[in-house]
Amino acid sequence: MNRRSFLTAVAACCAGSTPLPRPLSAAVGTRLAKPIPGSGETLPVIGMGTWITFNVGDDPQALDVRTDVLRAFFAAGGGMIDSSPMYGSAQRVVGKTLARLKYPSGLFAATKVWTGSGAEGPREIAESQRLWGVGRFDLLQIHNLLAWREHLETLKAMKADGRLRYLGVTTSHGRRHAELEHIMETEPIDFVQLTYNIADREAERRLLPLARERGIAVIANRPFRRGELVELARRHPLPGWAADIGCTGWPQVLLKFIVSHPAVNCAIPATSQVAHMRENMGACLGPLPDAALRQRMTVDFAAL
Amino acid sequence: MTDWLTYSLTDFLPFSRATYLRLFELYNVRFFPAAAIGAALGVWVLWLLYRPTAGRVRLASGVVAVCWIWISWAFLWESYAPLNPGAVYAAAAFGVQGLLLLTAAIASPRVATTTPFGAAFRVGYGMLVFAVLPMPLLGLLLHRPWTGLELFGTAPDPTVVATLALLLTARHPLHPLLMVVPAAWSLFSGLTLLAIDDPLWPLLPIAVTVSMALSLRKSREIGGRNRTNG
């Protein structure tokens, strides 16, 4: 099996047309990626968030460390970097560190609009572009649904003009799911970002199936609940099934659970440590759990 | 509405504990020797209020006012706001507080001392000593580098405590107004430190509570004396 046919098989399984074989074996070095519905463009299943971790201002030491973190991210085949104007200096730090790495070709630049004024949206987006040092974002999302009706019109116009490739909306912590469901049902969005992890699975009930129905890509935030789930899990040894899916640590287990859901395209863990980044990106390799193993994972985790 | 109940303190904090502590290191280095000058001004204020007169209280108030204005610009606007967008509002509030204190120090003819060695003065002076001397050193007990210590005059927390102390040691006619920003910052800073698991988080809330209680008692005593003399 070559890389192209393997990735095609993963995509087909995740689209639900074929049950996932158990467990998939992957060629060494093959990195998992899923297609964005509608475009077919593939996106690596592990991206990177920047909430807190990249908000370090002008600290030269911290900038050096974040550059190393990004270098490890791209070396491991990373793609999506997600940020927001809400994250303090994170966008500026992302821009500086990307510039140091000369904007790797695999970058999928995703940020958010975060202003209560629809009229302020274009100015804020332009400022984000300046901070990132990019001419165009791959994905712009309306942060926590703030003024979504006005901003959605702005993003639609940008996409129609070719100034934006994808548009989306975000929530977190399981908030405003009813409103999110309404937007997913009625608006032409490409991406939705929401909280989904092995402990917070409310989205499985309606939003993830709806995303599949509507051809909307899903980004999972808070994969570790800001480290809480990893801290909890690390007090216990890895279960035997972890090796079956190529996991050497709990972070990889938690990430593979998330991205093995057929509707989820990408998880965006945030880290400020190179070792953790390498560990997280390890979840891009090896097989994903099938439905039966996913069920067992939830039971075993709940028992921890 | 119920969404608000799902928020925790940490949801509002866009930076880590390490970044917050590093903020003071970078700030002290960037604006060197402002921290040393601020600390020296704190010692001067201690001397001015050791044997307070109306003139010395005005001078001390003026010094503290300048410190508030400095912190508004150098710390809150220049250093903290890039990490925490909400700091721009704090910068505005600190600027207003500085101007109010300056007004009280320069323009008001009614600044007067309390009766020396009264309870409010003793507690206030004790708080002032604490703010200028041991409070900054508490950071060393928490293994913070000495370059990252928060000093009177350049860091908000010890300056706020010193201001609360100043308001206890003297009678400023703008007193109630002068308590607003220190009280608000005490709450804000206490919650910030609580969110980053800093054991010093109760300091400012305790300082403002003590200050308010003694201020109320002091104003009742003064009111009682005025009624008796009248």
Describe this structure in words.
The complex is a heterodimer of chains A (304) and B (230). With 304 residues, chain A is α/β, with parallel strands linked by helices. Chain A has a single domain, classed as NADP-dependent oxidoreductase domain (TIM Barrel, Alpha-Beta Barrel). In chain A, 40% of the residues lie in helices and 14% in strands. Chain A contains twelve helices and ten strands. In chain A, helix 3 runs parallel beside helix 4 and helix 6 packs parallel to helix 7. Chain A is globular. The N terminus of chain A is likely disordered. Chain B has 230 residues and is an all-alpha fold. In chain B, strands 1-2 form a two-stranded antiparallel sheet. The longest helix of chain B is centred in the first third of the chain and has 27 residues. The radius of gyration of chain B is 18 Å and the shape is globular.
Entry summary:
Chain A has about 300 residues and is α/β, with parallel strands linked by helices. Helix content of chain A is about 40%, strand content about 15%. The radius of gyration of chain A is 18 Å and the shape is globular.
